Amino acid sequence: MQSRLGSLLESVANTATGFVISWLVWMLVVAPLYGYATTAHQSFWITAIFTVTSLARSYLWRRFFNRRTDGVA
Questions:
Q1: Tens digit of pLDDT for each residue in 2-19?
Q2: How far apart are alpha carbons 49 and 51 in whole angstroms?
Q3: Which residues contact 43 (CB under 8 A, 6 or more apart)?
Q4: What are the boundaries of each domain within the chain?
Q5: pTM for this structure?
C-alpha cells in the first residue's frame, strides 16, 4: 500500500506535468482558436485553479481506493 505522503508526491508530480502541458495548450491552441485574449499571467492563474482542483481530486480518489483495497491481494 502506498503511504499518504507517497500518494501526495505522485499526485503532485503527475499534476505538475499536466499543469505545464495544459498551460501551453491553452495559450498556444485553445485561446487563439476561440479568440480569447488573455495574458500569460491570466492564463497561468486560470490553469492553476483547475490544477489545484485536479490535484485534490486525484489525491482523494487515490486515498479512497487505497482504503477500499487495503488487504486485498
A1: 888 988 888 788 888 989
A2: 5
A3: 23, 26, 27, 31
A4: 4-68
A5: 0.63
